[in-house]
Amino acid sequence: MKVKEGERMKFWLLKKEKGITLIALVITIIVLLILAGVSIATLTGDNGILTKASEAKEKTEIASEKEMVELAIADANMKGIENGKITKESLQKALNAQLGENKAEVYDDGYGNYTIKINNTNRDYEVSRNGAIIVAKQVKDENPGVLSGGGTEENPYLIESMEDFIYFSNEIKEGTTYSEQYIELNCDLDFSNPASYVNSTTKEFGDINKNGKEEELLIELTTGRGFYGVGVENDEDRENKSFKGVFKGNYHTINHLYINKKKGENFIHVGLFNVNFGTISGIELKNVNINCNSNVGICCGGIVGNNKGKIQECSCSGNINLISDGNKTSLCGGITGNNNTDGKIYNCFNLSNILTKKMGSEVNYNGGIAGQCFNSVIENCYNNGNISTVHTSENAVDIGGITGSVSGSSIKNCYNTGKISLKSENAVNIFKGSLCGYIYSNGSISNSYYIANEGIGGIGYSEGTTETILGKSEDELKNACSFLGDAFKEDRENINNGYPIFTWQ
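RE: above sequence
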């Protein structure tokens, strides 16, 4: 039977005996629209029918998801209040009731808020402890990708969007060190949230994640290798392609930093800033996801990979994972991997969990604040993150809540509440301490504290100087402000489970 051209679609539909699927319906609609003279561009372009339909669908999903989160918060408010605040446990229980088991997870971000992650959509919702959903503000930047200002202390360069931050990173990688210049972060940034971008779909920054494709900026920064860090990743012209200025974070948050380095790639220093020769202050780095698999020596940290400058009043939370099977030293810490010669860290804290696996023939250094302290200083810092190491090398491992080892360095006025875990199969020299794994003869630690009865002492082994290194009960440590010093204050809002916090928090 010969079917007229206009009847082909009807004939095709009539042949289906069991109805039409959703896919068939969509195809049918597209074909009918094309026959009616609607172009492909009208269907699929940025303002096309299908694009708009997809955006509308996503908005509906988000609205529904947000409503479920709000219902869970209301339920938690009625059933799980402690000191006037929602507890993590009650919020998790309420979410399980609303969404089902294992559909959402609650994380205490350590800053007085909770982060709710919806597992199947990978969306996050930040919730204050009084039950309000915190909505990210859309950045405002008239000239994204170009820093306004003059670089002086009175008129600093301003970072006002994610585009500005990537531009700033690229400039340093190309040799602009910003020596003796001032840069200020003027807003919160979230690598995974379009609100932190003027245009999250721009492709002008190229193939950042090194997957061979130029994709939208948000996708580049949150998939593949992710962000490459500020400055060079290796030792090729490190002195001239690393940060040397003054960076003031102004206590803004940088959320969802994603770095994913794989074996065989040319990197040694890994962090938000790969190497620092300058001064970095006031950055609250939240929910980091850093993963490194290396067969060479590596310095991996949240704020800085290799620090030869000053870091003050900064913090890090999330997860840092390092696998190393090379015959070089590996160093991993929450604030910096290596607090190197002339490095100084003041008034910082780490909440990130650190997991390392060492299979090569060299030493493994891990700590909550710094993997190693070499000819440097750490003062007034605390760690609440858990530090875990699996060590199959025949050489030594040094692991501690503040730092793995201290050589030619001093540490004072610090405390640790994080758990220290070490599994070793072949290591000859194992040194783990709640504060520090190994203190060399020219190193010192003083006036620092840890929770007793965790199965390990404060110092793994010491050839150096120790003074007032004490294990405390949880209650005693919560009342430690009087002997930790003026940098600390009582945690009256319970943002740190009652343990001392900084005057800047």
